[in-house]
Amino acid sequence: MSSFLTPSRRQFLATGLAGLGAASGLLPFAAAAQQKDTRNTDVVRLTWGFHGLTLIAKERGVFEKTLADQGIKVEWLGPFPNHAPTLQAVTGGSADFGFGGSTTPAFAAIIAGSPLVFSQFVLYEPRTTAIIAKDNSGINTVPDLVGKSVAVNRSGLGEFLLVAALEKHGIDRSKVKFVYLNPPDAAPALASGKVDAWSMWSPGVDIARLEYKAHDVFLEGRDLEFFIDYSSYVTSRKFATENSQIVKAVAAAYETEAKWTNANVVEAETIVQKKAGYSEIIRDQFIERKRHYTLIPVTDKDFIAQLQTAADWLAARKILPEKIIVADHLAQY
């Protein structure tokens, strides 16, 4: 099993608040088109990968039992290597929920026509997404990336962080070659020297740093003063409309899982490490960082305003192809 089948995780806060489009006088989809308290199935199909809260929920079994007590059977689908394929699975109808990945590719999928809605958001800290380069590369600072190639995931956390790093240092993005690769392809590309650097989240970036003798060129939590990307759970509009009771139950179960994880860091990180197959050295780094998960409901208007600012930031920099109104894509339960 490749140690880089380790999906997304990241999250982000915007620098200010943006309006929710109330001036238009139109109700968002969530308020206008969905009915609360619906249920038309007893099965929920959840995607998972080798990362974070969803994997912990799957492996511990408490999440599944909690839903079973409400007459809901959980079917786990995976592992998925990163967030985008889970979005495709939900869009195509083979899964009901994504596995809790970056908001940015979810925005991109919605803009492209996928009928997705957000059911819950996740902020986890410390922020450990980083641009890394091998120790013998001669790349030590962001200006050193000029004329170099950097692997990023398109319309995702990796691309966002590289754009933000270049902007902070006043470097036009045309001076750096963006190489669009998903994590399973980006890891060997960095190892073989096909790309000069890699913009990646945990635990993939931590594994690469150790295995390939690499170092941080730009570290999100240290070098970036704002959040732009959060993690999020998504479902389809159809499922959310027809099964709001299940959407609510899944959100509550993840909230419970987050509380357990925050209170039991060693046990939680050991669960992930054993399943994902990375070294105890990496696990101990995560334990030392005391990763903390905060789950945010779709009803939090202040957060949605911050997320709208983030989406506008991404659209202005062409990471997203056009603007999106976040409030139009929220589940109601």
Strand numbers in spatial order across the main sheet: 7-6-8-5-9
DSSP, total strands: 11
* SSE order: HEHHEHEHEEEHEHEHEHEHHHHEH
Specify the helix fraction band. Answer: 40-55%
Indicate the low-confidence ranges by residue numbers.
1-33
Main location: periplasm
Pfam families: NMT1
InterPro entries: ABC_SsuA_sub-bd, Solute-binding_3/MltF_N, SsuA/THI5, TAT_signal
Domain Solute-binding protein family 3/N-terminal: 43-264
Account of the protein in words:
- InterPro entries: ABC_SsuA_sub-bd, Solute-binding_3/MltF_N, SsuA/THI5, TAT_signal.
- Keywords: Signal, Transport.
- This is Sulfonate transport system substrate-binding protein.
- The structure is a single chain.
- With 333 residues, the protein is α/β, with parallel strands linked by helices.
- Helix content is 41%, strand content 17%.
- It is built from 14 helices and eleven strands.
- It has a five-stranded mixed β-sheet, with helices on both faces.
- Strand 6, helix 6 (157-168) and strand 7 form a beta-alpha-beta unit.
- Helix 2 packs across helix 11 and helix 3 packs antiparallel against helix 11.
- The longest helix has 20 residues, at 244-263.
- The radius of gyration is 19 Å and the shape is globular.
- The model is unreliable at 1-33 (pLDDT under 50).
